[in-house]
Amino acid sequence: MNPISQIKLEREDKRIKLTLPYNSTHIKKIKTISDYRWHPDKKHWSFPYSEDIFKKILSLFDGENIHLDSTLHRLAEETRKNEDFQVLRRELIFRKYSPKTVKAYLYYNRDMLKLTNKSPFNVKDSDMKDYLFYLAEEKKAATSTLNVAINALKFYYGTMLKRKFIYEIKRPRKDKKLPVVLSKEEVAKILSSVDNVKHKA
């Protein structure tokens, strides 16, 4: 059996459990991680549970087939999203977008992934439309807000990830403001408050 296929990472209380067959190269990598422990009775290694240590383990064994339990799989997805959004943030700053726009673009992209519970690479056209509908229907977002959200999604998925379907999303029509019509009583009240007789003509 290929030893690479036997690498397993699991969460156990406050530690990360690593199971893999003996390999001198693997052992050298493991010993670069702080506070590692070897458990001879159970034949596995363990490390303090933290996002930084988890990321380092993944980096050390990059390119190898690692099986993650459900908890660490979710952490890996979240870590990847955060790294992707750091790239998005740097790109926006590089292109001289305002701090307000950078904050808004990051917010709407994170918010959509939180709502869909998907990674950016699994997002579909329908997910984006559902998210915009959610903003319009549930959050009662104004047209200007929806346009910012659309721009945020277009920049990330269209400009950065080269996804073409994002451009099929249509912009909402502008909000129409109804004219303010005063009642007779309100008009009389306004006129009565004017001191200058000429203004009442």
TrEMBL record:
Keywords: DNA-binding. InterPro entries: CB, DNA_brk_join_enz, Integrase_recombinase_N, Integrase_SAM-like_N. It holds the Pfam family Phage_int_SAM_4. Gene3D superfamilies: 1.10.150.130. GO terms for biological process: DNA integration. Coiled coil: none annotated. GO terms for molecular function: DNA binding. Residues 76-161 form the Core-binding (CB) domain. This is Core-binding (CB) domain-containing protein. It comes from marine sediment metagenome.
